[in-house]
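hey
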């Protein structure tokens, strides 16, 4: 099944499965929650020494990492800090992070930052298990963006050839998550808002993702309501901690943790984003700004009746009039997403990110699996339309 064609799955409105990840000890949220939540999670895990994993900019340019280090030091649980994690988590950084983890004698990772440190930490712990043959050690995630990598069991990293590679296990999902909006104040506005669009991407694509049960889809509607409401407010008032906290919770709702009996990819927008992001150094939040609205427009043409209904009903939750046909409703949702991208000042194109036009056929093929898929020409058109006229 391609990332685009989810038409053959059974109706998840009538049958399915829901389970929580086996090992999540808790999600703590609220401004200032770091100081109380981190010690509780360390105790729940029986962890004694932490490696802090983060990115260089967050380490060099803010006091966020120092705040985390100080809490760990107060509880005699600080080992070291590793900050060589780059965008899309290059494997060289992961290998160096594994060495730092062992050198520190750490038994837990505390990741601080966006999706790259969180995913890199999963990969470090995956490689550690492969090397030692022991149990998976665990991660506590402290996100400073809205990308929501902390709620998934998989990790994407970039190999030596510049290709995105994935590892996955239920035991790689972070054992604890701390959503402290005070720690997000130094996140650059463009990164904060674009990862908010990544959360919109999660919420929308979960509406047509196979094997997602209805309660999760209704959480996605709630996420969309808050993301459409609070992202523009956060742009207008970036220091409003209450708005940032609500956005962190909305990001959580957009990718609510699930224990799936079998893995299902999110959808075409994410598939395209993964191929564009690693190969051309485009941040994942920006790839969602590029691909989500046109993907939803394409769904108006190719999606199943049930998937169109789920997308159409998003208009009701967003307090928008429905048009009278499912196809027009889905197109209206696409236009609303495009309008949000523009309102946030995030409208962009592939030319700006130096993606050669001649690469488009390969990007499309990698995203949907093959060139014989009947949707392949439509995906080509979608990508070519991401260049300026």
């Amino acid at each position: 099944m391609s990332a685009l064609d989810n038409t053959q799955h059974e109706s998840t409105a009538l049958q399915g499965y829901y389970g929580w990840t086996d090992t999540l000890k808790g999600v703590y949220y609220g401004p200032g929650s770091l100081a109380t939540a981190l010690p509780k999670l360390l105790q729940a895990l029986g962890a004694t020494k932490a490696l802090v994993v983060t990115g260089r900019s967050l380490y060099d340019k803010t006091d966020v990492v120092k705040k985390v280090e100080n809490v760990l030091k107060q509880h005699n649980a600080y080992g070291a800090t590793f900050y060589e994690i780059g965008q899309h988590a290059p494997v060289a950084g992961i290998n160096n992070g594994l060495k730092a983890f062992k050198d520190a004698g750490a038994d837990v990772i505390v990741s601080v930052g966006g999706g790259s440190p969180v995913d890199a930490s999963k990969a470090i712990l995956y490689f550690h298990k492969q090397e030692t043959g022991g149990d998976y050690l665990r991660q506590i995630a402290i996100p400073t963006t809205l990308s929501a990598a902390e709620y998934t069991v998989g990790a994407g990293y970039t190999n030596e050839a510049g290709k995105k590679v994935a590892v996955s296990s239920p035991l790689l999902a972070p054992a604890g998550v701390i959503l402290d909006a005070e720690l997000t104040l130094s996140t650059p506005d463009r990164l904060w808002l674009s990862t908010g669009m990544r959360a919109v991407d999660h919420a929308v694509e979960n509406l047509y993702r196979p094997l997602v049960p209805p309660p999760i889809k209704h959480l996605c509607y709630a996420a969309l309501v808050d993301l459409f409401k609070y992202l523009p407010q956060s742009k207008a008032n970036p220091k409003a901690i209450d708005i940032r906290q609500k956005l962190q919770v909305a990001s959580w709702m957009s990718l609510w943790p699930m224990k799936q009996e079998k893995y299902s990819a999110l959808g075409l927008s994410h598939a395209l984003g993964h191929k564009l992001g690693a190969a051309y150094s485009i941040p994942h939040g920006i790839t969602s700004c590029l691909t989500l609205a046109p993907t939803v427009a394409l769904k108006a043409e190719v999606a199943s009746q049930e998937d169109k209904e789920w997308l159409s009903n998003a208009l009701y939750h967003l307090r928008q009039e429905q048009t009278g046909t499912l196809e027009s409703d889905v197109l209206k949702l696409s236009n609303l997403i495009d309008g949000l991208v523009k309102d946030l000042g995030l409208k962009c194109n592939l030319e700006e990110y130096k993606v050669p036009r001649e690469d488009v056929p390969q990007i499309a093929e990698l995203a949907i699996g093959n060139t014989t898929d009947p949707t392949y020409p439509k995906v080509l058109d979608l990508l070519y339309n991401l260049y300026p006229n």
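Residues 204-384 form a domain with the Dehydroquinate synthase-like, alpha domain fold (CATH 1.20.1090.10). The radius of gyration is 20 Å.
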